[in-house]
């Protein structure tokens, strides 16, 4: 199983989501690859934003080895699921989808909590540290559901 998180800058929401899910995957001993990507080339190769690193660390999550990368059409071949944070990310990703199979891989991350509702996780880049905390809690809730469901699938098939 390979999961990709996508946001705009790939320095706040998606690397944080990837760090949170990786920790939950490791804790459950699951075989899942987790990556993140974005669409805004300003910060290519850079670490996550300092406030992202700080909020992660405060919750025991390590995202220090992140390097910003752009989403590419090949990601549809590599990943089984592609989770986006908001409508713009959804448009950016689905505009690059080549077929129905690609389209089916893309969903709003918060739909794992409330399917089909398309709730968004807003960009905290211009926000406060309280906004980063809110983002963390939403990502953590969604990632907990993803990790638990993969763990259940594994139990059901072994
Ligand atoms: P993110 O936040 O999409 O959660 O990583 C952003 C960070 C940087 C920029 C946009 C969004 N930017 O335009 O530089």
Q: What is the CA–CA distance across the termini?
A: 16 Å
Structural class: alpha/beta
- What's the total helix number? 6
Q: What radius of gyration results from the CA coordinates?
A: 15 Å
What's the architecture, going by CATH? 3-Layer(aba) Sandwich
* Total number of strands: 4
Strand content: 5-15%
Biggest sheet layout:
4 strands, parallel
CATH H level: which superfamily?
A: Response regulator
Principal-axis shape = globular
Listing every helix as H and every strand as E from the N terminus to the C terminus, the arrangement reads: EHEHHEHHEH
What ligands does this structure carry? Answer: 4-nitrophenyl phosphate
The stretches of 5 or more residues where confidence is low (pLDDT under 50) are none
CATH class: Alpha Beta
CATH topology label: Rossmann fold
Count of folded domains:
1
* Strand neighbour order, sheet with most strands: 2-1-3-4
Approximately how much helix is present in the residues?
A: 40-55%
Describe this structure in words.
The protein is α/β, with parallel strands linked by helices. The chain has one domain (2-157): 3-Layer(aba) Sandwich (Rossmann fold). It is 44% helix and 11% strand. The chain is built from 6 helices and 4 strands. It has helices at residues 13-27, 50-58, 75-78, 87-94, 100-104, 129-157, and strands at 2-6, 33-37, 81-84, 106-108. Helix 2 (50-58) packs across helix 6 (129-157). The structure holds 4-nitrophenyl phosphate. Residues 7-13, 38, 40, 42-43, 123, 125 line the site of 4-nitrophenyl phosphate (4NP).
């Amino acid at each position: 199983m390979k999961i990709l998180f996508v946001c705009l800058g790939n320095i706040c929401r998606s690397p944080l989501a990837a760090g949170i899910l990786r920790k939950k995957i490791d804790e459950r001993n699951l075989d899942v690859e987790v990556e993140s990507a974005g669409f805004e080339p300003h910060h290519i190769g850079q670490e996550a934003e300092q406030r992202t690193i700080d909020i992660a660390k405060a919750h025991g999550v390590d995202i220090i080895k992140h390097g910003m990368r752009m989403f590419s059409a090949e990601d549809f071949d590599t990943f089984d699921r592609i989770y986006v944070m908001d409508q713009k990310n959804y448009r950016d990703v689905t505009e690059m989808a080549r077929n129905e199979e690609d389209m089916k891989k893309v969903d709003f991350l918060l739909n794992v909590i409330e399917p089909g509702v398309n709730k968004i996780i807003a960009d905290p880049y211009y926000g406060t540290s309280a906004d980063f905390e809110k983002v963390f809690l939403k990502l953590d809730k969604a990632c907990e559901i993803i990790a638990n469901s993969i763990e259940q699938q594994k139990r059901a098939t072994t």
